[in-house]
Design goal:
Length: 412
Amino acid sequence: MTCVVLVGNGGREHALAWRLARSASCTRLIATGAHPSWPDAVEPIAGDPLAIAREFRAGLVVVGPESPLAAGLADRLLAAEIPCFGPTAAAARLESSKAFTKEVLAAAGIPTAAALVVERGDPAGWARARARCARGEVVLKADGLAAGKGVVVCATGAEALEALEDMHRFGGAADTLVLEDRLTGPEVSVFALCDGERAVALPSAQDHKRLREGDQGPNTGGMGAVAPCPLVSGDQLDAILDQVHRPVLVEMARRGTPFRGVLYAGLMLTPDGLRVLEFNVRFGDPECQPLMLLWDEDIVPWLMGCAVGRLPDGKPQFRSGAAACVVVAAEGYPDAPVLGTQIPDGGPVEEGVLFVAGARRSGDGLVVSGGRVLGPTAWGADLATARARATAAAQRWAFPGAQIRRDIGAGG
């Protein structure tokens, strides 16, 4: 039995709070950020997570977003002997530096796209980057954290050269650039709970990054997700962990920076086999939403096991069937979301939950306050039923100018 402090206040954290509130092991649930739709059990208390954890004698801190991890929150908590679900800053470099990730992948012998790493201030490196872009079929990535938006996929040389010159819009995150050969194939997300030595698979998921249906338009933070992904069977998950996650754990331990938390591998299933596109060191958003809806037992012992370096035996239990999240995004997202739009009440989500991300309370209703606004998430005995329920809820909750993909989960 423990007091849990949850860090973050987006759609992912809403899903985590919803699941934590149902944990018999969680005696008190404190969130460090305000949210318009926290479960009733949540106590929002603003402030430094370490100070809050100390004041309320928290037994576990759960960090939702990546930025606090990259900034060393887990290190501060560990120094204070407070268990933290989330890696140290050194281990979080698997997300905070794409160049570092490439280095780890190479050292661990894990398949990934060929890449060129360049510094913006290096004329020779910039010349090599321009030469690579001129050939086309390249993916430009800001090395650092860019809120899930620092990736530009280019087919032609002309668009790649234009994108290269425009990467400065991602600020300091793009001081170093990673230019990867463009791969083809469906993408899938595979999550594993890790305690520094052991990795335990969660159901696979599939995010949909492109803004428009048919995987068209610019990359976003994610327009919807389903779990499990029909492209990866349960039997295949352990093979993927053997090929990807477990070698990473060995390599990170060898470097003296053991990884504890959830390791999310973004994979592409190419004609030549699996390739790693990226790592995240926290639950994905919006993949977390269907995963939390499917989770079917007390989550706290598993998060605590990661934090203290001793996962429980076996695997966590998940509900049968499938879950889908369909994002309702603001007009103008991802580049210039229109804020302040009133959101009509679309009613309950059939067999699901309305997870809220970029919205705030105004009177008795909600108004848009961010790019990805809502994430209605629904369960179904099969994927078709889950996505139909989530899509119907998204359409009911749509506001003027809202952007919705109606094909989330339709291609798998």
